[in-house]
Amino acid sequence: MKRSLVQWGESYLYCPSRMQKILSLILLPLSWIYCLLSFIRYRLSTPKKFGIPVISVGNLTVGGSGKTPLVTALASHFQRPAIVLRGYGRQSKGMIVVKDGSILCDTLISGDEAMLYATTLPNAVVIVSEKRELALLEAKKMGCEVVFLDDGYGKHGIKKLDLLIDVQTPNHFCLPSGAYREKLWSGKKVVMVREGESFNRHVTVQNPTSNMVLVTAIARPQRLDIYLPKVFEKIYFEDHHFFTLEELQAIIRRTGATSLLITQKDLVKIAHFNLTLSVLMLSLELDEELITTVKDYVYAT
Predict the structure, then answer these.
(1) Are 269 and 291 in a shared domain?
(2) Are residues 61 and 193 in the same domain?
(3) In the chain, N or C terminus with fewer CB closer than 10 Å?
(4) Burial level of 79, CB count in 10 A (0-12/13-18/19+)?
(5) How many CB atoms lie within 10 A of CB 47?
(6) Residue ranges making up the domain that contains 71
(7) Quick one: 146 and 237 in the same domain?
(8) What is the pLDDT along the chain (301 residues), one digit of tens a residue?
(9) CATH number of the domain residue 144 falls in
(10) What is the model's pTM?
(11) Roughly how many angstroms between the first and final C-alpha of the chain, as a whole number?
């Protein structure tokens, strides 16, 4: 039931049917109120410095946009970066240092995205916290040279360089009529990041088999379609879903899969089950101008 509601919501926001478009128009008054409140919050915010350079990677819409691989690619250019994120889907509260040299907790505590950073970036400090300001101070205390703030556009009270991933959608309203959490407000300076200009994706399949079934728990999983090899079936779970061994074994029995095709974000929650897995390995090739822009900001701050 929950999975169906998530899929309906993603369709409503990004590829609406005729009836969904009508619903979107009915909800417009609520959308205008939401957008106005977001604008007031922005105007009342005063950016504060935290004694450490902060690079925010975000987007204006709800749902996936590729923030994690972009943060990973940028952070790899520094000796001791910190990654700060909320830790959506984690079964914990408060500020937690996920990694400092070694990994200090499991995926249930950190959340899947934080654990992916922890396993992918050997030199990074990874911190999850609902209050990003506390995490920034902790990163400074730990001697980090820069903080990458995952999904930080709306944190207007933090002085930062905003990298904004351009996500295309036919629905340009704010929630609940459309996909936009906020607009690009007048006076807000950002660096727009676009695929094909600022970066290019490279996807390979690790351990491919003859009868792969795609199983994934990411937002807007249809984004994967252009990178997929031939698969027998596609099975989508809600974003940040924590899989159980039983549900994955049931999928293998029902489909006769020779392996489950998963993303790296899924892998950190599944690897310990010792199932036969094929993994979509994603890397980004960054434009040199983007790298220079980020480094110039860090070293000038």
Answers:
(1) no
(2) yes
(3) N
(4) exposed
(5) 11
(6) 45-173+182-198+286-300
(7) no
(8) 666 777 788 888 888 889 999 999 999 999 999 999 999 999 999 999 999 999 999 999 987 778 999 999 999 999 999 999 999 999 999 999 999 999 999 999 999 999 999 999 999 999 999 999 999 999 999 999 999 999 999 999 999 999 999 988 777 899 999 999 999 998 899 999 999 999 999 999 999 999 999 999 998 898 899 889 989 899 999 899 999 999 999 999 999 999 999 999 999 999 999 999 999 999 999 999 999 999 999 999 7
(9) 3.40.50
(10) 0.92
(11) 49
| E-strand stretches of the chain | 54-58, 81-85, 96-100, 102-103, 125-128, 146-150, 161-165, 191-193, 199-206, 212-216, 233-236, 259-263, 277-286
Helices (H), 44-186: 67-75, 107-110, 112-120, 132-141
119 in the same domain as 49: yes
As beta bridge partners, residue 284 has 201
Q: How far apart are CA 252 and CA 270, in angstroms?
A: 14
Q: Which two tokens stand for residue 136?
A: 């920034």
